[in-house]
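Thread: assembly with ligand

MN 10:42: here's the input set. Chains plus the small molecule as SMILES. Want everything predicted jointly, not piecewise.
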Amino acid sequence: MKLLLVAEYRDGKLLACCNELMDFSDKMGAESVMCLVGSENDLPGYSGTLYLADAKIYGEYNPDGHKQFILDVVEKEQVDMVAFSHSSYGWDLAPRVAFALKAAQVSEIVEVVDEIPVVPLCNAKLRRDVLVKTKQSVVTIQAGAFGLPEDPVGTPVVEKVEGNGEGRVEFTGYEQAESGGLDLGKAQVIVSGGRGIGKPENVEMIANLAKALGGEYGASRPVVDSEWVEHNRQVGTTGQTVTPKLYVACGISGAIQHLAGMKKSEFIVAVNTDRDAPIAEAADVLVVADLKEFIPLFTEKIQAL
Amino acid sequence: MKILVCIKQVPDMESKFKVDSDGTWYEKSDLVWRMNEYDEYAVEQAVQLKEQVKDADLTVLCIGGDQVKETMKKALAMGCDRGVHIADDDSNSKEPYEKAGIIAEYARDKSFDLVFTGMQSQDKGSAQVGLLIAEFLDMPGVSTIVDFSYSDGVVSVKRELEGGMKACVTARTPLTVTCQLGLNTVRYPTLPNIMKAKRKELLSIPVEDLLKVESRQETARIYFPEKKGTGLILEGGVAELADKLIGILKEKTTVLT
Ligand SMILES: Cc1cc2nc3c(=O)[nH]c(=O)nc-3n(C[C@H](O)[C@H](O)[C@H](O)COP(=O)(O)OP(=O)(O)OC[C@H]3O[C@@H](n4cnc5c(N)ncnc54)[C@H](O)[C@@H]3O)c2cc1C
Ligand SMILES: Nc1ncnc2c1ncn2[C@@H]1O[C@H](COP(=O)(O)O)[C@@H](O)[C@H]1O
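BT 11:07: finished. Tokens for the full assembly:
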């Protein structure tokens, strides 16, 4: 079996996902080649052939151009599978490549058991084994589900690909997130509120507990999207990644995108009414309770210490 | 301007799920159903666009059994003009390529200027259907948008990337966009609009009329993952729970000293 691993590059830098793609390839027992729209000044530690297109010509977001580049490599190398990360880059390109190849696409693989890809279902409460019926396939792999213990140090054999990289949409630039001077990454204790807090007035409850514990408060995405809390306090893939000594997740179900931002915390406490919430997988302690009753009382007791 | 928005009906994710007798999907009885969260943003954006350009016709489309009509009525009450229900009691076994094929078959000769979908469905989460529709219809597609504006045939969007960064992108219609959480503020349908929605057209088309492609994958089985969590589960009265948790934090962490 031969895999094409699609590496990623953004804002002039190679992204760290190559390592996960290489581990996935090892787990598949496959040989691989890699491709990248990027720069020869920032190459992955990979001992294999790397097809390289110049991001200056192709653009960093240009689905038509990147798709054609990948299809040309697939054609040349006759690969059986194209593997992307399940990221804003990967999930955007994978369906387009799959369509052109007349191949099945399996999204967000978390595991491969006896060559069968396994994907999450219903917010990771369930798992689904997928049977691919086409000869070639396209896959995206879940961020964090694979990964070699250390970044490989090889040097790739670079094959430059020239092309015009034409496309129908125009990328006009990046907009950076505003931090507002807050760096959640430095906090020793973070108490986060999720949709389970129910209403904006309850943010105060979360903030009070954070204060009592000498830390900062954070939030899951729906709380930020509803504008109850500023974006600079959002924890997760599209917010901040944090590693405090203590993380308290209140009314947060534990979606993969939230877990990705906090699962490396030293000690994790979850407060949730649902005993089966996926957050239980990551938590050292799950307190099964209504946060509206538990948090104020717990805060009082902490203050009284 | 002609606009299409595709929605899916999904169970509430806090439900207790059970595996069905086939072992290939979840049991559909005893669940609370709602509009896929991502699609609520898609409907809202489509309605806002219609309100902006005024001269627009907005169709909401959903593939599923009769019960999805309830969710479609919500989209009509939010401001869609007409509903197209693609009747399919077996829609959960259709894979993304088939679903996109069905939707594209319906849309092909209708020259939609804009197609809105959610970036993913909450249950299946394949994040494929929207972009596949664009491929089928040979129009450009942009995924995961958190900002949308339209002027004179040109659409400007922001794509959300990891770490809170955004990519600004412009494209001409016809175009498909897939909508991410937080794209806008989703309205609640008002009572008069709920009443008005009852009189709006809701056309049903049998899926057999539109399914022209073959499936490329299927579900072998679904199951509950083995619980990996080695964490402690505390249950009981809140006062007792608070004391227990303080004890644990004193023992296992340094934050209370
Ligand atoms: C590309 C992408 C990027 C994303 N990035 C992020 C990100 O950076 N950060 C992020 O958080 N999410 C992110 N998300 C969204 C993510 O998928 C989830 O939708 C989100 O994390 C859910 O937030 P939640 O847990 O607060 O809400 P829900 O999933 O709705 O969970 C609410 C929880 O509260 C519990 N609850 C309800 N009432 C109570 C009560 N009274 N007491 C105690 N518990 C209660 C419920 O049992 C439930 O478990 C992203 C999604 C996508 C697709
Ligand atoms: N049964 C369906 N009927 C109509 N649209 C759907 C259906 N399933 C998925 N979609 C659309 O496709 C998007 C992505 O779904 P998915 O590829 O399953 O993650 C959803 O947000 C919907 O907009």
